[in-house]
Design goal:
The protein has about 500 residues and is an alpha/beta fold. The protein is built from 14 helices and 20 strands. Helix content is about 25%, strand content about 20%. The strands form 5 sheets. The chain has a 5-stranded antiparallel beta sheet, with no helix packed on it. The chain has a 5-stranded mixed beta sheet with strand order 15-14-13-17-19, with no helix packed on it. Strands 8-10-11-9 form a 4-stranded mixed beta sheet. Helix 5 runs antiparallel to helix 12, helix 7 crosses helix 11 and helix 11 runs antiparallel to helix 14. The longest helix is centred in the C-terminal third of the chain and has 20 residues.
């Protein structure tokens, strides 16, 4: 009963004083921090997560409570001098958990300041905000590694994935830049300062326009000469899996839209918000039940990968539309390349970016798990390929297109062309061969324009696998082909052919 009371179940209401008042120890809060202090000792990211006893932790989970509560030393944030020209505060924002502040430089560079601790009350329905559920959601933040984002930057850099470079600071409660009521949640807390947009590798020719997920997918839907850089997205998604970062919904990405020399644009991923790396939930009875039965995509980071469908589920919309042209060999090649770029020394150096007191608690275990997951990355990548290959989706654009499907006894070839283009592989903006051992069903979506779907059977035997499910858009689409046989389902004017990002999670 004591453990349940820790969640507020006994009282049935939310704990009013849940969070620590200041990252500095309670015993010294009456002593003002010296005005000239460049750093502060003994601060904690969230000692309130460690106030529970052994019974509570056995029931709910030990999580990373010790890391949240261990005293560390961090620099004091000084906006006028933290970078050349200083930083000017802008708008307060954040998602369901984070509190963030946009910052700018005199030359227009954009930065973000995000609190290390989170408050998920905004994700709670209003009718439940006064109940024990808020206590449980707030306490669940202890399942995140508070210093995990510091580890990601050098690992992402090593494999060529765009990354932010967060730095950890203490925000003085008396800092004049944080005295407005809208900034009160930053006072006396630890926070990450980082570039607003992930930094692309220098060799990528990264000049372009940065947009969110909705504009990026709208661009891909608008015209066939704007395409995702699928190899870049695959590497970013394999990095997500390796780090155990399950929270990769559309709101967790920006995109770099780069004009191409002749026409169109290449759209490459810029990952953001790495708060869920190394997540640990199922080390308590209730945590195990939540992670394995109630919310299985809240996967725990350990040496062995969890169930792939759960780990990758939040990014499924991105994966089905942004990885649909890649072959099994390309998945293998990306995984093997990442293995070579992540030797033990790189992993150790990255994890040692965790403050030393917290590293002593969790660092060696994180290093060992990363090494084991790296060694198994090719097997994971192959499973990821097979998972997406079972029911792939091929979409057109808002313009008229011709979908051409050749069905052979041992394979099915799908190509998509602009309606007025000659039928040749060089004119196809989608071309892939599917195999019946891997693919059970192919979904073809005609979006806008008068699309034509041509199905051609080859050989003496009628091919019925994989099943073809064709969803025409709102215009006059047509199904053509002689003897296209069984296993072909055509729906004209289907509501399926629309932009599902209208329902995407908020950032």
């Amino acid at each position: 009963m004591t453990a349940l009371a820790g969640l507020g179940i006994g009282s049935g209401c939310v704990r009013k004083q849940f969070f620590q008042p200041d990252a500095r120890p309670d015993a010294v809060l009456t002593q003002p921090l010296p005005a000239a202090a460049d750093s502060v000792r003994g601060v904690t990211a969230g000692r309130h997560y460690a106030r529970h006893g052994r019974l509570y932790q056995a029931l709910v989970g030990r999580h990373y409570r010790s890391s949240w509560a261990v005293p560390i030393t961090v620099p004091v944030l000084r906006l006028p001098s933290v970078r050349p020209g200083g930083l000017t505060p802008g708008k307060v924002g954040g998602g369901f958990n984070s509190t963030s502040l946009s910052l700018s430089t005199p030359n227009g560079s954009a930065y973000m300041l995000r609190t290390v601790d989170k408050d998920p009350i905004r994700a709670t329905p209003k009718l439940l905000r006064g109940t024990f559920l808020v206590n449980a959601l707030r306490d669940n933040i202890s399942a995140t590694q508070p210093y995990g984002p510091l580890v990601v930057q050098p690992l992402a850099q090593a494999v060529g994935v765009p990354r932010a470079a967060p730095r950890l600071f203490y925000v003085r409660p008396d800092d004049p830049n944080f005295q407005s009521d809208s900034l009160r949640l930053f006072r006396g807390q630890l926070a990450y300062l980082e570039e607003r947009y992930a930094v692309a590798p220098a060799a990528s020719g990264a000049a372009g326009k940065v947009v969110g997920s909705k504009p990026a997918f709208a661009a891909v839907v608008a015209t066939p000469d704007q395409q995702f850089d699928q190899r870049a997205l695959l590497r970013a998604r394999l990095l997500d899996a390796w780090l155990g970062d399950w929270d990769r919904h559309p709101g967790q990405w920006n995109w770099n839209v780069r004009p191409q020399p002749e026409s169109g644009a290449s759209i490459s991923p810029l990952p953001k918000d790495r708060d869920m790396v190394f997540y640990r939930l199922d080390d308590g009875v209730l945590g195990w039940l939540v992670g394995h039965l109630a919310i299985p995509h809240w996967t725990t980071f350990r040496a062995r990968y969890p169930k792939l469908a759960h780990l990758m589920s939040n990014g499924h919309y991105l994966d089905t539309r942004g990885l649909n042209q890649l072959s099994r060999a390309e998945y293998k090649a990306e995984a093997l390349a990442m293995q070579q770029l992540l030797p033990d020394a790189v992993i150790s150096t990255a994890v040692h970016r965790i403050p030393s007191a917290a590293f002593a608690l969790e660092g060696p275990g994180i290093i060992a798990a990363l090494q084991a997951r790296r060694d198994n990355l090719p097997a994971f990548a192959d499973g990821f390929y097979q998972h997406l290959a079972r029911r792939p989706m091929v979409a057109g654009t808002a313009l008229p297109e011709r979908f051409v499907v050749h069905r052979y006894s041992d394979s099915t070839v799908v190509a998509v062309y602009p309606a007025q283009a000659a039928i040749s592989q060089q004119n196809a903006f989608f071309h892939r061969t599917f195999f019946p051992a891997e693919t059970k069903e192919i979904q073809l979506e005609g979006l806008g324009g008068d699309d034509v779907f041509t199905i051609e059977q080859h050989g003496q035997k009628t091919v019925s696998r994989p099943v073809l499910r064709i969803y025409g858009g709102p215009d006059a689409d047509e199904l053509q082909g002689s003897k296209y046989g069984r296993g072909v389902h055509f729906s004209q004017g289907s509501a399926r052919a629309k932009d599902a990002f209208d329902k995407s999670p908020k950032e």
